[in-house]
Amino acid sequence: MIQMYHVDLRYAGGTYGLRDVSLVLERGDFVFLTGQSGAGKTSLLRLLFGAEKPSAGQILVAGRNITRLKASQVPQLRRQIGVIFQDFKLLPERTVYENVAIALEIAGVARSEIRTRVWSTLKRLGLAHRIDHKPRMLSGGEQQRVAIARALVNDPPLLLADEPTGNLDPALALDIMDIIADAHARGTTVVVATHDPALLERYRHRRVVLEGGRLASARSPSEYASPARHAGAI
Amino acid sequence: MIDARSTRRIAAALRAGARGARERPLVFGLAVATMAAGLLVLGTYLLVIANLRGVLARAGADLRLVAFTELRGAESDDAVTALAAKLRAQDGVASLDYVSPAAALERLRNDLGQDAGALDGLDRNPLPGSFELAPAAGPRDPASLRGLADRVAAVPGVTEVRWGEPWVEGYARAVRIAEWIGAALGVFLLLVLGTIVASTVRLSLHARADEIQIQRLVGAGGWFVRLPFCLEGALQGLLAAGLALAVLRGLFALGLPLLGDALSWLLGGQPAVFFGPAESALLVALGVALGTGGALASLVNLDERA
User: Fold this and answer.
1) What was the ipTM of the complex prediction?
2) What is the pTM of this model?
């Protein structure tokens, strides 16, 4: 699903967000992207959904080389990817329904189908009773569930989540992770950036560790007890 | 060819634009008001120019070429008619009037007024018969009038042609200057208005920054983001032009009686006229174009990847 080859991300001024990152994620994988703040987790996710262009290297998403995408082709890529953020990024003046429907409207889905899909997604995420509410009337966990509903309503093959539980208390964090895990169980490839050890402990999925913009290690669940294997061997 | 999916996207973008305008009535109203003020200034200026141009056009329409002839008043009517026919056949002559030597003398007597007695000593009428020629409709520029005068002067029986060359050249210069000043002022006002629109759209863009960011994140293309702003700009331009026209019409109706004689003097005794349907439609179209153009200009640097 995702292949990254010797990817650099260098910002204006010469500082590196990522350096020589190579990584392969198979379709259906669930991967935690971990590391300290500033390690490059968000930068890596931003590369994957086309918000940044790598300074060097190649990135393939679903077989498509996104480093060669023109800016005008980025929206097409993003319609294939669901993205969840720590700060939810909901429209405060729109209802829950409208916040979720926006992804389908932009994809050009018929209004009758939008109604059906939004309803079923909200129902699955336990938000059907909140459909006409504005985000400010919801709890933090509910707001994040709305953001997840927006990310999933289009049935994307790839879900990227940037610290999705960062603003939530532990109980709600697990609730959100369960929803993401459910999406994974339905076949979605999932990449979750987090530095929350409790989540990493509870959900034993593959971990990709970043340090100072470099890939420090990438371990499968069975390797957690063994020393880190370095990036070159992925 | 636009497919159903694209049509639905366009519809969604338009709905987003309409919703944006509804959600920020203050910004929207402010934009309409500032554009209307600008268009009011522009409309006032255009109205003044249109009326002054009317004065110049009417003055130009009154222009006559005078062809002096060898006719001394003793000739038969046939001779006058024959020469008139030759002159009428010249390219660029719309109509003509014959002024006999006696009529010319009578005019001179009237023009001299109290001094007309000076003419009493003449033993014969020294004035020749002449034709006053009205040029055909078209430009009254010195070059075309000089060409017509040369053709008329070449007709046998015509001794001299006068056509008020200094006046015509002054008239042409006045029209040219008015047009240049008009164009410069027009461009200046359009730039000012364009800047106002672009600023208000940027304000709207800023107010909707979060919405745009989210739209981009879920895959909205550049046009999906731009279209609502263009629609909003066009709508603002339409409303602003309509408002400016209404205010201008009101001011015109109220101001006419107040200005009275001064305006009549300025317009050479002609009544001031308001825009016709075509000019009104043009101003509205200008407002729409300004609104759309201002929106597009402010969206030129929209980051496609952000």
Assistant:
1) 0.81
2) 0.67
